[in-house]
Amino acid sequence: xxxxxxxxxxxxxxxxxxxxxxxxxxxxxxxxxxxxxxxxxxxxxxxxxxxxxxxxxxxxxxxxxxxxxxxxxxxxxxxxxxxxxxxxxxxxxxxxxxxxxxxxxxxxxxxxxxxxxxxxxxxxxxxxxxxxxxxxxxxxxxxxxxxxxxxxxxxxxxxxxxxxxxxxxxxxxxxxxxxxxxxxxxxxxxxxxxxxxxxxxxxxxxxxxxxxxxxxxxxxxxxxxxxxxxxxxxxxxxxxxxxxxxxxxxxxxxxxxxxxxxxxxxxxxxxxxxxxxxxxxxxxxxxxxxxxxxxxxxxxxxxxxxxxxxxxxxxxxxxxxxxxxxxxxxxxxxxxxxxxxxxxxxxxxxxxxxxxxxxxxxxxxxxxxxxxxxxxxxxxxxxxxxxxxxxx
Length: 392
Description:
Helix content: 25-40%
Number of strands: 18
Domain Hydroxymethylglutaryl-coenzyme A synthase N-terminal: 16-164
Domain Hydroxymethylglutaryl-coenzyme A synthase C-terminal: 247-349
Number of helices: 13
InterPro entries: HMG_CoA_synt_C_dom, HMG_CoA_synth_N, HMG_CoA_synthase_prok, Thiolase-like
CATH superfamily of the largest domain: Thiolase/Chalcone synthase
Keywords: Transferase
Low-confidence stretches: none
Pfam families: HMG_CoA_synt_C, HMG_CoA_synt_N
């Protein structure tokens, strides 16, 4: 049975912070960010935008009413959970009006979670080929003002509709996963921002890539020459570039090296303008590759390296199907350029605003007129979400 990704959607916030402005405010050389991280801009989410609203927006952009009637599973992967009990997928299921007899749950393992969700979706479809599974990766990456991770923040969501006979990509049964009990990045329940051992995390990312790739080649019998592109988890693009250079075999023909490098450059375009979106970063890179690389063609095999601190990594591959471009957008960069640019002072105020609850555990929020979905308030500790009606 052929199973894979039938549709891919993306959503981010309406605000953007230019990293050249952040560099100036932090008295940092702009090249340290633009060249040292390969980043240009960060999406900044206001208090009325969270993983629920972003996830619903990403999914709404691709789903038809027929899809909503056929989806029988909704999985949200996130490390920015808004509730320790109720899954984000339940909120999104309701906002989208998906048929009621669907299983909804949330997956967590740092930035790896969406890959686990895709694995689960594929297993489900093998038993129920007439169904559809909605997988959403939704996160807001916050590190704090003046922290080393500040230039790699971001906000966004990727939605993927997994079906039989997909119209974009098909899964191959070649997954190789690895688990290590390490503390390179973690966020205890009592902390709103993560703790990061930056150098150690970089080393873990690269070593997991190296060892997983070696095992993948041994089990699959494939090598880099068999791939048109390699997609990486993108905490920041420069780290992924180091990863690509690490696995480049010196015996690889120059033409193949050039192809892989060109496609890598296409895969980081969106992340350079959005920043880190944790669970969605790998798949934002995949979407960027598909929508910006002119040389891809049906049948091409794409490798993906998924990494989540703590740590779990996985390498797997997918193949492009005929007419895959018909399911993609051609104006996404123009849409990103329409975001409202923030001053550093406004970024600090908007991104780190906290909801102030009254004695009943309630609060009203405003300023979300331009959002597709919004957190409109809290009523007795219950978060209130609405689809925002825009004027025609």
